[in-house]
Specification:
- It is a single chain.
- 57% of the residues lie in helices and 4% in strands.
- By secondary structure, the protein is mainly alpha-helical.
- Among the domains are: 223 residues, no CATH class; 145 residues, no CATH class; 58 residues, no CATH class.
- The longest helix is centred in the C-terminal third of the chain and has 31 residues.
- The radius of gyration is 34 Å and the shape is elongated.
Length: 696
């Protein structure tokens, strides 16, 4: 079977230190044999092999920490020879020690009635050599060359007699003798065949894989999952499991658990075990450890390959994670394990294959994969997945905050989703994915641990910017889509987020400083303009987002302490400039829009109640609003103009496009259009009732 080279290695690659403090280095066959001769092995035992790469070439020893320094064969320097991911041989000339190496390389499980032909040569026995016999003893090269001959026979059984191979694999996996190379040779051969299947290898190998599946490979895999804490095993098993699941998928790529109970068991057991060990991947460096077996083309496991494979597997499982079929019957715990893996992939950009990362669609898919897709098992698909609010709370506390920290999560979400992706929205699907990510993330970001970072992370400001970003407005013309986008902002800041597990002042003040009330005012108007008549959910969310401030204001007013008065004043100052303009626009909408009177009436009540709690008088605020409008009408709208604050000597003229803003000269109008952002604002003002922004 042809091996695929995963990557190039440095001549003196270093693996991390062992518990004893030894590191692993690549050495040449000559360097290894010279050292063994010096250590006391016989010259016959250290004869040079006839074939290149016959011997293991990764040695654990007391090497220099520098990757550039060659591994000199000093006395006592080389300690162990890596054979498999779970077995290393002590480099020592004692006869018992040499016999232990032979036992480790001897195949113990044989197929009955298969081997012995030219196409499937029989397994050869490896004699027990004498380490100090220069005349009749075998060499180290003989031992490993005999093992490789047996590996070729094992491969022949796999390709030509898949049923026999599955029987052998079942025995090996159940016995799980971690000190015997045949176990990992078996896994290695299956992994190579799975890779050939995925990569479209030679027809005979693709056919062999299909016959291996028919022979019941799925039934044999479960015992292997106990060894997923070994990174090399994790990498191989992820490849094999994904290929097995793909082989059992139907035309629509759904997993056919009803017709394959074994597949369901494999799927569940795999995710239960992988979910418990997935955090291992977080802790690994650039190089993690030795591969499955010494004869791999490059037996070093790199972290980027483990994470990339995890990304590929979790993306494949989106079908089950996002659109769970109630008939499948997967346990809720499995969905949590998949989400745990998806979360890790989301935190590691190196998971993304280069070809995917180079495409805008690929970047978008990767960035929204966790908040936009995986989190839906706790939201839109929670009924089918069986996950509850308690499950979500556990996931947030243990998997997100416990493993990564609240600040790291909200900063990543703010920078990579809200800020970075808003400039990459090129299709309606992009817009919907971004919107879904924000909508789903609300279930996490309302947790008390995130509140202290609402402002410092830039989260609140980024939400406001998303609503106003020019590129996004291009895809949000359907009223219900834009209303949904704006109301998403309110969802994060509902009553629970403001009042639970935190003092009122601690929760409210950062939000007020970030301009949350003007955002809610805009959201209320967009909700009233939306195309759906009865959207109780959005009304409920907006009501719940405004109500806490009404409760806070009422309580502060009643108690009258100095601290309460300070908070009361902050709320009043924050909402006062937008309070009456919001009510005014809602009333105007109600009178001229036949579809929105009901929604306008509901939102007017919300804002009127808030004003009553603050003691605002509508007549007084209306008069102030009219005065401000008249004053602003005399000024130039271009902020850098000298007449933006001072009345110009001549009358201003209104913008012909929207009629809402005025300029002292054509030059100011053109400058504001090009540099001040009025080009974007003007288009909106022509089609929407607009709340004047005095502070935002």
């Amino acid at each position: 079977m042809h091996e695929t080279h995963r990557y190039e290695h440095c001549q003196h690659d270093i693996l991390g230190p062992s518990p004893e403090g030894y590191s692993t280095r690549h050495v040449s066959q000559d360097e290894l044999l010279d050292f063994m001769t010096e250590l006391g092995f016989s010259k016959a035992f250290c004869r040079r092999p006839t074939q290149p790469r016959s011997l293991p070439i990764y040695v654990e020893g007391d090497f220099s920490a520098s990757v550039h320094s060659p591994p000199l064969a000093q006395s006592g320097l080389y300690k162990r020879l890596h054979i498999t991911t779970t077995y290393s041989w002590d480099i020592s000339p004692e006869a018992d020690n040499v016999a232990a190496l032979v036992r480790a390389l001897t195949y113990r499980v044989h197929p009955e009635g298969v081997l012995g032909s030219l196409s499937c040569p029989a397994f050869r026995d490896i004699p027990h050599p004498s380490a100090d016999d220069d005349v009749n003893g075998l060499s180290l090269a003989d031992i490993f060359e005999t093992h490789k001959s047996n590996l070729s026979s094992f491969d022949a059984v796999l390709v030509r007699e898949p049923h026999k191979f599955v029987e052998m694999a079942n025995t090996l996996f159940v016995q799980s003798d971690l000190d015997n190379v045949q176990l990992w040779d078996c896994v290695y051969l299956i992994e190579q065949l799975a890779t050939a299947q995925v990569d479209g290898g030679p027809p005979e190998l693709v056919d062999a894989w299909e016959r291996l599946i028919e022979a019941g490979l799925s039934d044999t895999l479960v015992p292997l999952f106990c060894h997923l804490h070994h990174t090399a095993v994790m990498l191989a098993i992820m490849k094999i499991t994904q290929c097995v699941m793909q082989s059992h998928s139907g035309v629509a790529n759904e997993l056919r658990f009803q017709t394959s109970p074994a597949l369901k068991r494999v799927f569940e057991e795999f995710w239960l075990h992988l979910g418990r060990h997935v955090t291992i991947i977080r802790g690994i460096g650039d190089t993690e450890g030795f591969g499955l077996v010494y004869h791999e083309s490059e037996p070093i496991v790199y972290a980027i390959h483990v994470r990339s494979q995890l990304f590929a597997l979790t993306m494949y499982c989106l079908l089950v994670a996002v659109y769970p079929n109630v008939d499948i019957g997967i346990r809720p715990q499995i969905y949590r394990m998949i989400c745990r893996a998806g979360l890790l992939c989301w935190f590691y950009p190196d998971c993304v294959p280069p070809d995917l990362d180079a495409e805008v669609d690929g970047q978008f898919k990767y960035t929204v994969v966790f908040p936009g897709y995986f989190l839906s098992v706790y939201a839109t698909s929670s009924e089918a997945s069986g996950l509850t609010e308690l499950d979500l709370d556990t996931f947030v506390r243990e998997d997100i905050i416990g493993e990564y920290g609240a600040e790291a999560f909200i900063v990543r979400f703010t920078n990579d989703v809200l800020i970075d992706l808003r400039g990459k929205v090129h299709t309606v699907k992009h817009f919907n994915d971004l919107n879904a990510s924000i909508r789903n993330a609300k279930h996490i970001l309302v947790h008390p641990e995130f509140r202290r970072y609402y402002t410092s992370s830039g989260f609140i400001q980024a939400l406001c910017d998303v609503a106003e970003y020019p590129r996004l407005r291009r895809y949000s013309h359907p009223p219900e889509v834009e209303r949904s986008q704006e109301c998403t902002h309110s969802r994060r800041l509902n009553r629970r987020a403001l009042l639970d597990s935190s003092s009122i002042a601690h929760a409210a003040k950062p939000l007020l400083r970030s301009g949350i009330l003007p955002v809610l005012a805009q959201s209320s108007i967009l909700f009233a303009q939306a195309g759906r008549e009865n959207d109780r959910e959005c009304l409920y969310l907006l009501d719940n987002a405004v109500e806490p401030f009404m409760i806070i204001a009422g309580g502060a007013r009643a108690r009258g302490s100095e601290r309460d008065q300070e908070l009361f004043d902050a709320i009043e100052q924050s909402i006062k400039p937008d309070w009456y303009p919001t009510i005014h626009v809602l009333r105007d909408l109600s009178s001229r829009d036949g579809e929105s009177p009901g929604r306008c009436k509901q939102m007017i009540k919300v804002w009127t109640d808030l004003g009553n709690a603050l003691g605002l008088q509508e007549k007084k605020e209306k008069a102030r609003y009219e005065r401000e409008r008249k004053r602003v009408a005399q000024l130039c709208a271009w902020e850098e103009c000298e007449f933006h604050q001072v009345t110009p000597p001549t009358s201003t003229r209104a913008c012909a496009g929207c009629g809402e803003v005025r300029y002292c000269s054509r030059a100011c109008q053109q400058t504001d259009w090009a540099k001040g952002g009025h080009k974007r604002q003007c288009k909106r003002l022509k089609s929407e009732a607009y709340v004047p922004h005095t502070r935002v």
